[in-house]
């Protein structure tokens, strides 16, 4: 069965990051156990722990950051399955400007 034909629900666990509970951004995989996370999430996480957040495998005693690698194919899958995701991280979503904010005056005379 083609990976891309699987229902999103079934794929979600593989394309989501347990650290931020969102879809993978810059998917990065721990070489030791092949678990994947967002790059920023796992880099931050490995500053305080040298173990995989999912299975607790030791990434590396002293230099865990050398034992993760960008997972291009996985990120491609995420980008295909979740169109629009690419924009979220780099641009602020439209419609947040508050030019339409109306001031309400209290008028109970
Ligand atoms: Zn994440
Ligand atoms: Zn793991």
Helical segment count: 4
CA radius of gyration is 20 Å
Q: What is the terminal separation in angstroms?
A: 71 Å
For the report, how would you describe the main beta sheet?
3 strands, antiparallel
Strand-residue fraction? Answer: 5-15%
Q: What ligands are attached or bound here?
A: zinc ion
Helix proportion range:
25-40%
Q: Let me know the number of strands.
A: 5
Form type: globular
> Structural class of the helices, strands and pairings?
alpha+beta
Order of helices and strands: HEEEEHEHH
Give a nutshell description of this structure.
This protein has 109 residues and is an alpha+beta fold.
Helices and strands in order:
Blueprint: H1 8-15, E1 16-17, E2 22-23, E3 28-30, E4 36-37, H2 39-45, E5 68-70, H3 72-81, H4 85-90
Antiparallel strand pairs: 1-2, 3-4, 3-5
The structure holds zinc ion (2 copies).
Q: What does this 3D model show about the protein?
A:
Helices cover 28% and strands 11% of the residues. The strands form 2 sheets. It has a 3-stranded antiparallel beta sheet with strand order 4-3-5. A two-stranded antiparallel sheet has the order 1-2. 18% of the residues are buried. It has 4 helices and 5 strands, in the order αββββαβαα. The radius of gyration is 20 Å and the shape is globular. With 109 residues, the chain is an alpha+beta fold. It is found in: Nucleus. GO terms for molecular function: promoter-specific chromatin binding; zinc ion binding. This is Polycomb complex protein BMI-1-A. Keywords: Metal-binding, Nucleus, Zinc, Zinc-finger. One of its GO terms (cellular component) is PRC1 complex.
């Amino acid at each position: 069965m083609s990976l891309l034909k699987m229902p999103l629900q079934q794929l979600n666990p593989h394309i989501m990051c347990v650290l931020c509970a969102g879809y993978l951004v810059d998917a990065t995989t721990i070489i030791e156990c092949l678990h994947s996370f967002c790059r920023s999430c796992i880099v931050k996480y490995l500053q305080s722990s040298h173990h995989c957040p999912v299975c607790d495998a030791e990434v590396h005693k002293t230099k865990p950051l050398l034992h993760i690698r960008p997972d291009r194919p996985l990120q491609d899958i995420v980008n295909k399955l979740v169109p629009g995701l690419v924009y979220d991280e780099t641009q602020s979503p439209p419609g947040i400007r508050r030019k339409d904010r109306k001031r309400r005056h209290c008028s109970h005379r």
